[in-house]
Amino acid sequence: MAEEFDPWAGVEEQTEERSNTEFDFEKLLFVLRKNILWSILIIGMGIVGGYLFLRWTPKVYEASTLLKMEIQSTRKLFGLEMPSVTGSMENVNLAGEMELIKSPMMYESVLDSLDLSISYFSEGEVQDTELYGSLPFVVSYKHLGKENSIFYDQKIHIEFLDEENFVLTFNEFSEIQTINGKFNQPFRVYGTEIILQKTKSLESLGHRKYNFVFNSKNKLFQNLRQNLSVNVENARANTLRINYQANNRSKSIDVLEAFNKNYIVKTIENKNVVYERSLQYLKNQQATIEDSLRKYETEYRSYTRIENVPEFAGLEDIVSKIRELEQQKLEIRLTKSQYDEIIKLIDADSSTIYLEAVGHLLGNQQIASMINNVLLVEQDLDRVKGSYTKETHARNQRREALLESRSKLKEVIIYSLGTINRQIDNLDQEVLKLEKAFYGSIGGDPVLKNIEKNFRIYEEMTSLIASKMIELNIAKSGTVENFQVLSQPNADIAPVFPQTIMVYGVGIGSGVFLSLLLIVLSYLLHTRIDSVKQVERISNLPILGYVPHYSKEDMNYSQLVVQKRPKASISEAFRSIRTNIDFMNVGEEQKVLSVTSTISGEGKTFVAANIAGVIAMSGAKVALLDVDLRKPKIHFAFGNENLDGLSSVLIGKSNLKDVLRSSPIATMKYVTAGPVPPNPSELIMSKGFSAVINQLKEEFDVIVLDTPPVGAVTDGMIAMRHVDLPIYVVRAEYSKTSFVENANELSKSKKIKNLALVVNDVYSRTLNYGNYYGNNYSYGYGGYNGYGYYDENDISEKWWKRFFS
C-alpha cells in the first residue's frame, strides 16, 4: 500500500534557527530598490554642494618660481686668493637662504617695492572678489598715524552717487559712519588727507558695489608668512622652489617677482659684508702705518738738522720720488693682472659676464666697447640656438663672429700688455737710479741707515695694504650673482583652490559614501519580510501562496475582492491558495480552517474573508465565523453592523440560525463577532463554542474562522484547537522576520499542528520567480494573460515603477 503524503512530515526536524547575520542578496536588492531615490538625492546634493562651494569660495592662485643658488665672486677668477674670505663666499647654505627669503627684512623690502598698503574689492552677494591691477578707483593718502588706526584692516564701503560724488561707509566703535566726498578732491579724516581718483566711468562700472581696506603692516607681514612657501627642489643642484598664493593671479606673480629682485640685492649685500669688514680693518691698519711713516720722516728731518747733514743729497725729494714711482708700479701691475685675467677668460671660453666685470674695472673705453660687442654677439648666438640646429649656417655664422670678436679683443689686450710691460721696466730703472743716489748720499751714518731701514719697512707695509685694499675692492665690485632664475614667476590660469575636479569628486564621493552608509544601515536595520523567497529561507512551513498588493482602490477595511473583481490577479491568487488547500487535504477531510497572524494589521481578516469567498465560489457551502471578539472586523467586509453575533450565541442570548447572515455569494454565510464581551477567552474556551463549531459542520462543507492574533492574545490559540488547517498570515514589508520564526516555534512545539503560511500584500517587484502562481500563472493550461481573463485595468506596473516602488 502506497504511503500517504504528509506535507508537514519532518517540519519539526528541518526547521532550524536561521542566523540573521547571513548575507541575504535578495534583501540587499530590496534595500537598494527602497533607497535608490534617496541615494540619487544624496549624490545630487553632493554635486550641488560642490557647485555652491566652487561658486562661493574665494579662488586661490599659486605663482611659482625656481631659483638656482650659485653665488660666487670674480676675485677667484682674478687669482686673488683670501683664505679667510673664501669659505664664507663659497658655502651656499640652502637652509640659510630659505630663512633669508622668509625673513622680516625681506618682507620689508618686498612691501616697499610693491604698493600693497590698500586692497580693493568688488562686493558680491556672498563673497567679495579682490581687485588688482586694473582698478575702478584709486585711493591715495598720507601716512596714517595712530590716531587713524581705526581705519586699518576694516572694510570701507564706497557708493558712487554720480560721476563726481561718492559716499564712504565704515564702522567706528560699532557705529556706522558716513563721509561724503568728491572724486579727485582731497578730504580729511581724523587729520589725514585722502584723495579718491576714479579711473573708470560710472556706466562702465555697472553700478557695482566696492570696498577697500587700509592694510596694516602686521597684516601684510602675516599674509606673506602664511602664503609664502620656500622648499628645496634639488639639494644637489642647489635649487629652491618659491611659491606664493593669493586670491588674484596677477598679484601672486608680482609678489614673487618682487621677491626675486629684492633677494638678488639682499644676497649681494650679505655676501659683500665680509669685504666691507676686511676693508675697514685694512683702512685702520693703513692709518696706523701712515702715522709711523710720518714719525720716521720727522725723525729723519730732526736728525739731519741737528747733525748738520748737508742738503746736497736732496734726500727728502729722493724718498718722495721713490714712493711715487713705487705707487705707479703697483697700479700698473694691478692693471697688468687684470689684462692677464681677460686673456685667461678668453682662452677658457668663459662667460662674457666675467669679461664685462673685469673690463669695467679697467676704465679703458676701447676695451670696454670691444667687450660689449662680444656680449652682443654672444647674445645673438644664444637667441638663434633656440631656433636653429647646431650645424645650420645661421648658428655657424654667429659662432664664427663670436670667435673673431674674442680674437680681436685678445690682440688688443696683448698689445696693451706690451705697453704696460715697457712702462714697468722704465719705472724699475728710475727707482734703481734713485735708490743708488739715496744710499750714496747718506754714506755710512748708522743712525740714518736705521731710520731709512724702518722707513722702508713701513713703506712696504703701506704698499702691501694698498694692494690688498685694491684686491678687495676688485673682489667686491666683481661679486656677481650667478643667481639663475630657472623659471620666471608664473601661475596657472586655473586656481589651486578650490579645484573643480577635486571638489566635484569629493561631493560625489561623499554622496556615494553616505548612500552606501544609508544602504548598509538600512540592510542591517531591516528586519521586515520583503519577499516570498525570504519567507522560504527562514521557514520550512508549507506556503499556501501569496496575495499580491492590491492598489486598484483604497480599502479602509477588508473587502470581498474575489466577488467584486473575480478577474483580477488578486482573485486568481486566492484561487491558487484554494487549490493548494485542496492539495493539503490528502487522506482526510478538512472541514475547519482558521486564519490568524502575529499582530493586528497583517491582513488576516481580509485573507479569511476572501479564502472563504473563493471556496464558496467553487460551489462548496462555506461559513465564515468572526472569532476575534476583541476587535471584530468581518462585518465591514459585507457592509453590515455588528449587532448580534457569536458572542450573543455563546452567552445564550441568540440562536446560531438567527445570527447567520447571507453574503453576496449564494453558498456563503457569515457570523459576525457580536458585541465585545468582557471575557472573550472564557467564551471561546466554553463548551458553547465547541457546540457552535459542531453545529456548523453539520450544515456547511467548510468553516473558516477569523481568529485573533496569536502574538497579542491567547484567544486564537484556544480557537485553533477545533481547527483542521490553521493558516498563519504574514504581510510583506510589514511583518517582521521574527513573526515567521514565531510560526516556526508554534509548529515545532506542537502547539499548532498542520500550520501553513500565506504571504499577504506582496509587491510585484519581488515576484521574480514562478513558484507561487504569480501574474503569469498558467498551471498547465497555457495561461490566462492575453485572453481577456484579467481585467483590462489589472495590468502590471511599468518596470521603472516596480523598481523604485
TrEMBL record:
Residues 279-335 form a coiled coil. It catalyses: L-tyrosyl-[protein] + ATP = O-phospho-L-tyrosyl-[protein] + ADP + H(+). It is found in: Cell membrane. It holds the Pfam family ParA. GO terms for cellular component: plasma membrane. The keyword Transmembrane applies. Belongs to the etk/wzc family. This is Capsular exopolysaccharide synthesis family protein.
